[in-house]
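Extended Data, panel c. Modelled sequence:
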Amino acid sequence: MTSIERDGSIDLPADWPGGPCIGILPTTYRTAKEVFGLPEARHPDRGLTYWTVRTPAGMAVIVDDLLGLDELESRPDNTVHFDVHATSAAVLPWFATAIAGNTARLHHMLKPRFSLRDVTDLLTGYAQYLIWQCIAIGTTLSNPRTMPLDKLKTKAQSMALLVVLAARTAGRAFLPEHSALTDAELLERSTKSQPRLPIQASDKQISEFTLHYLQWLTRPTHRLQPIKSLPEMGGILLSGADIDGTLLGIETSWPTDRPELRRLLAQHIKTLRNIAELLL
């Protein structure tokens, strides 16, 4: 079994975890082998090649059920659209980063003929991924006294920025759901208490926490205008990318002279813009 660890590193060597096809992974067979190792199981009679991968957001299976192993090995540099099977779209940003090093091409992981629900699931998974990155930075601060003050400040600023970007992204992703809430549901959401992350939490606990924390951060206080179409969501994301792009320099928390903060924000804006342009 392949594992993508919390820090994004790949641990090469599970049972089929099931789950529907929640996206696609466009890459070459050569790259897939370099990242995930050799396919764990091959069924030439069925034309099936797959990898079982553990990510911080849960198990997933990367599948080719069209070409067959012989065809993949004969043309290893051709782009293949592998199916991603999992129980949550939260795994997709981890695969995007494992293949390309960042989430800028996350939009390519949407299924053909995707729906508004597919988009909101992808955005929610991306927002959870941002919270994961914040937690990962936090784990490096176990002994802050040994860290130079300037580096410590940058890490703290990065964590704060990631939380804000995650909350804003989740808020946009939850808009269709929030617009359909009843008065009783609105009241229930608004009175929920802040979730807490257990000490020495497992990946499953952290993944659940990221979703509950984002739901708490974005809890609605009133019913919103319904969003029913992909172009509507595309316009919201495009405007959101412009708004998010003004964060650095507005507050002293995020000065413009920090390359790490500029890199984080630039990657986020590109990710949102690429998804938005696909919807318009």
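The mean pLDDT is 87. This feature is highlighted in the accompanying rendering.
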